[in-house]
Design brief:
The protein is mainly β and 115 residues long. It is built from no helices and eleven strands. The strands form two sheets. Strands 2, 4, 5, 6, 9, 10 and 11 form a seven-stranded mixed beta sheet that branches. A four-stranded antiparallel beta sheet has the order 1-3-8-7, with no helix packed on it. Strand 7 and strand 8 form a beta hairpin. The N and C termini lie far apart (35 Å).
Length: 115
Amino acid sequence: VQLQASGGGLVQAGGSLRLSCAAPTTILSVFSADTMGWYRQAPGKERELVADISSRSTTNYEDSVKGRFTISRDNGKRRVYLQMNGLKPEDTAVYYCRSISRNLWGQGTQVTVSS
């Protein structure tokens, strides 16, 4: 059982997608206390942190996505989201969610941005 990421797809440049990550109680008994993050890995590149959000909803963003992406969380639904606007071809990657606090990963969801 893993964190369950969804919401990826194919979109044209300038478009938007919203990724969602669910944290089942079977693997993450206390979701609200964890720092959560979204990572991405493009072909031939290392996995990188895109954004993270603390238990108090303090957020941090990788420079290239600032002003375009927004990370948020809903502790009641045990979900973390990544709203991606103004998508660019260079955002194409597999996106993963992670409980940074516990080093638990999701299975990844493909985002492809066409020019």
